[in-house]
Amino acid sequence: QVQLVESGGGLVQPGGSLRLSCAASGFTFSKYAMSWYRQAPGKERELVAAVTSGGSTSYADSVKGRSTISRDNAKNTVSLQMNILKPEDTAVYYCNAEMFWGLRKYEYWGQGTQVTVSS
Questions:
Q1: Beta bridge partner(s), residue 70
Q2: Rounded distance, CA 36 to CA 80, Å?
Q3: pLDDT digits (tens, 9 = 90+) for 77-110
């Protein structure tokens, strides 16, 4: 079955770094766009960064210049390196896989990993 398993979250001090990873299985990873979303308490889920099946990347303004998303199609993994972390980066981070096939959308979500930025 389809699985997206995130890892790498935790407690980090402001200014620190974290690397989130997502291991995918159960679908053809290379055909999917992969993204990281986050949801802070009381807020809507928001897109943080995305990488297309072709390797193009995009970032939310809030993390641009501080984060790098990358994918490894050989290992079926997608990672998010986050630097210069701020308290406002505190959220549950979710891995997302998405593909459009004709008019049909295929989408999968991980269970999330908590990132807390605090001194």
A1: 79
A2: 8
A3: 999 999 999 999 999 999 999 999 889 999 999 9
Listed in sequence order, the residues at least 6 apart from 28 whose beta carbon sits closer than 8 Å to its beta carbon are none
Residue 46 CB neighbours (<10 A): 12
| Under 8 Å between Cβ of 48 and 36 | yes
17: Cα separation from own chain's centroid:
15
Backbone φ and ψ for 29, nearest 5 degrees, come out as -55, -45
CA nearest 98: which of 21, 38, 36?
36
Q: d(Cα 31, Cα 73) in Å, to the nearest integer?
A: 9
Q: Which amino acid appears at position 91 of this protein?
A: A
